[in-house]
Design brief:
There is one protein chain. The protein is of the alpha+beta class. It folds into 4 domains: 151 residues, Immunoglobulins (Immunoglobulin-like, Sandwich); 316 residues, Coagulation Factor XIII, Chain A, domain 2, CATH 3.90.260.10; 114 residues, Immunoglobulin-like (Sandwich), CATH 2.60.40; 93 residues, Immunoglobulins (Immunoglobulin-like), CATH 2.60.40.10. Helix content is 15%, strand content 39%. Strands 2, 4, 5, 8, 9 and 10 form a 6-stranded mixed β-sheet that branches. It has a 6-stranded antiparallel β-sheet with strand order 21-18-17-15-24-25, with helices on both faces. The chain starts with 6 loop residues before the first strand and ends with a strand. InterPro entries: Ig-like_fold, Ig_E-set, Papain-like_cys_pep_sf, Transglutaminase, Transglutaminase-like, Transglutaminase-like_sf, Transglutaminase_animal, Transglutaminase_C. This is Transglutaminase-like domain-containing protein. Its cofactor is Ca(2+).
């Protein structure tokens, strides 16, 4: 009889493997999980009992299974013959499971170095094995003894491996886009940008199990989960809840009573904790930066280099004309929905999407590098609310036919804004007032790597020239007009552009206001000059509206009807005063839109201009009295100013600081007018290095106040 000796212990060297695989920061490692990257070797030790394992006589086979129906041909099963005939199975190369080293240690331990193929599916794998013990005869019989790896085994993409399609050579960007746990996304307006800090928290213990759930429930084939193009496309679909039980439910109507106001979130972890604890029900609510923050978290956790990107003055072209059309009546007031109520084009002050870095083996050469994915549910792509990945290089060239959704991204950064006004003399009832050719995609910002920020005065980079040629160049206009040729209104557009070149002897100019501190008055100024020697009659409307950042909701703040008779060569100006009491109780976000629409009676000259401005709110300030030390409690003070002439009520402060303190929400007493509230909190640093604190504040009277602070934890 064969004396059975079975493996009794498998040592996975979780920490050592995690260090070499750049996964040591994952909290799952300290809880027993093996977190590895493909395209790299990991080490395990198998200890036997009762009898020694004889490498020359006995046999050992390891299996690695992925998904519902593991299959070697599909790449979802790894079969590894550790020793004996056909050792290693398939010939060893970068896309097969194989052992790099097999040796006995201290006579009863078998040490294995195992290579994970650089193209395997990413997610949760199962490891098990079979030991076959020989009876020692010339024609031996073998006794099979199965064993299983009980710990979870996650395999991730590997941007450090040149054989992986997500390989990123730039060390600074790789560290930023994989390992940085927090970052900044930009909002506000093109003229007055505002940073919004976000804790990605990709190493939190809730992240990897949540990623696994999302991907396994998404409908993606297990064999496709090694392809970052397919994985990113699914992520852009599953982060929003518009088609399925995705992670975050969108809301732009301002009614957040049964959920969390998007501006109150400080990071992704709390959202995923709620998603998991409610049985994977969508979490209420999110807007574009929430979706982008969540995408960044998931991609970085899975090993796909990812960064959020903000496009300022972002076009939402619903009818694929590469134009955003706005309509005004004869009095200069905007017609919502256009003349037939079926035009839903819009221009967002800003829109945040993501870029992921990879080789595009599915596209012709010249499309590798940064790829746009967008989880904000704006439109359907192949029947689902998702967008991308679209090659940024293809967007630059105007190569709109390439997968996926390149044409939509092209329009977001290149569309023309057309202003139309009712005109009885026009064949179809409207004439073109103005074409804004160079307004859309004015800036495209992303955060610089931490190491670069230390040497620069700003912490962002404007990457607009990676998306399109310089505005106004022949190359840029040619790309847009070529793309427009397929649209139904192209000829109409060209005819109207010629009409714009008609008589315009009255010069009009609308003041450009960048930002107004909340509680201050501001003045809208319209200058006009009659450059002819004949009298001119100018009539129209100036409107000031509070809007949300997508311009889908608006509240009228003030309106002024203009009627001005100008003699030859006369100059004058119209002043519209907007006081704090006019706008404070009407604000939706921080944004105000000014429209001025004018016409000249004698020449039929028509003119329109618009201006965006931001109402600036104070940020949360931070103060520490000592240098934070590892494992030692210290204080931090948060300071919140009430800039208004009324008290702030129902005050809530949310704080998130990975490695420094637990996430918490704090109810605060009413803050009196013009007073500063001081909140003292305790920190207990558990990780060395630079750590970031992110806080948001809201009240019934004032929302979307935020702040961030960095500390360097020392020993």
């Amino acid at each position: 009889a064969v004396s059975m000796a079975c493996p009794v212990y498998m040592e996975y060297y979780k920490v050592n493997n995690a260090i070499s695989h750049h996964t040591k920061d994952f909290e799952n490692v300290s809880e027993g999980a093996l977190v590895l990257r493909r395209g790299q070797v990991f080490t395990i030790n198998i200890r036997f009992r009762e009898r020694l394992f004889d490498l020359n006589k006995d046999r050992l086979i390891l299996y690695f299974d992925f998904g519902k129906s593991p299959s070697v041909p599909k790449g979802t099963k790894g079969l590894l013959r550790v020793n004996g005939p056909n050792r290693g199975g398939l010939p060893a190369h970068q896309f097969t499971w194989h052992t790099k080293d097999v040796r006995l240690v201290e006579s009863d331990d078998l040490m294995l170095e195992i290579y994970i193929p650089a193209n395997v599916p990413v997610g949760l794998w199962k490891c098990y094995g079979e030991a076959y013990y020989s009876d020692g005869q010339e024609r031996p019989r073998f006794e099979k003894v199965p064993f299983t790896c009980e710990q979870p085994m996650y395999v991730l993409f590997n941007p450090w491996c040149q054989d992986d399609v997500v390989y990123m050579a730039d060390e600074m960007w790789r560290e930023e886009c994989i390992l940085n746990e927090s970052g900044i996304m930009w909002g506000g307006t093109c003229k007055s940008t505002k940073g919004r800090c976000w804790v990605y928290g990709q190493f939190d213990k809730v992240i990897l199990p949540s990623c696994e759930h999302v991907l396994s429930c998404s409908g993606i084939d297990d064999s496709q989960r090694g392809d970052p193009v397919e994985v990113c496309r699914i992520i852009s679909q599953m982060v929003n809840s518009s088609d399925d039980d995705g992670i975050v439910q969108p809301c732009w109507d301002g009614n957040y009573k049964d959920g969390t106001t998007p501006a109150k979130w400080t990071g992704s972890c709390k959202i995923l904790e709620e998603y998991k604890s409610t049985g994977w029900k969508p979490v209420k609510y999110g807007q574009c930066w929430v979706f982008a923050g969540m995408v960044t978290t998931i991609c970085r956790a899975l090993g796909i280099p990812c960064r959020p990107v903000t496009n300022f003055i972002s076009a939402h072209d619903t009818n694929k004309t590469l134009t955003v059309d706005k309509y005004f009546d004869v009095f200069g007031e905007k017609i919502e929905g256009g003349p037939a109520g079926d035009v839903f084009d819009s221009v967002w002050n800003y829109h945040v999407w993501n870029e992921c870095y990879m080789r595009r083996t599915d596209l012709p050469a010249g499309n590798d590098g940064w790829q746009v994915i967008d989880a904000t549910p704006q439109r359907q792509s192949a029947g689902m609310y998702r967008c991308g990945p679209a090659s940024v290089k293809a967007v630059f060239r105007g190569d709109t036919g390439l997968n996926h959704d390149t044409g939509f991204v092209f329009s977001e950064v290149n569309a023309d804004i057309l202003h139309w006004q009712e005109d009885e003399q026009s064949d179809w009832g409207f004439s073109l007032l103005k074409c804004l050719k160079y307004k859309i995609g004015a800036k495209i910002l992303t955060k610089l790597p931490d190491k670069l920020i230390q040497d620069k005065k700003v912490c962002y980079e404007d990457i607009v020239h990676s998306y399109k040629p310089k505005e106004g160049t022949h190359q840029e206009r040619l790309a847009v007009l070529t793309a427009m040729r397929g649209s139904q209104i192209f000829q109409q557009y060209m005819d109207q552009m010629k009409k714009l070149e008609g008589c315009s002897d009255v010069l009009l100019d609308l003041s450009d206001i960048e930002a107004v501190p909340i509680g201050d008055q501001f003045i809208v100024t319209l200058k006009m000059k009659n450059t002819s020697d004949d009298p001119r009659t100018v009539a129209g409307t100036i409107t000031v509206n509070a809007i949300d950042y997508t311009e889908t909701r608006s509240v009228l703040i003030k309106k002024d009807r203009v009627f001005m008779e100008l003699v030859g060569q006369q100059e004058t100006e119209i002043l519209l005063y907007v006081k704090p009491e006019d706008y404070i109780d009407k604000m939706i976000d921080d944004n105000i839109k000014v429209y001025a629409v004018m016409s000249v009676k004698e020449t039929h000259q028509m003119w329109c201009e618009e201006d965006d401005l931001v109402i600036e709110k104070p940020s949360i300030k931070f103060e520490t009295q000592e240098v934070p030390k590892l494992g030692q409690q210290c204080d931090i003070t948060l300071k919140i100013l009430n800039p208004l002439d009324i008290p702030l009520t129902n005050c809530l402060l949310a704080v998130e600081a990975p490695g420094l303190m637990p996430r918490k929400s704090i109810d605060i007493q009413n803050i009196e007018p013009k007073r500063t509230e001081f909140i003292r909190e305790k920190m207990l640093p558990v990780k060395l290095g630079e750590k970031r604190i992110v806080a948001t504040f809201s009240s019934s009277e004032l929302q979307d106040i935020s702040g961030t602070f960095s500390v360097n934890v020392v020993e």
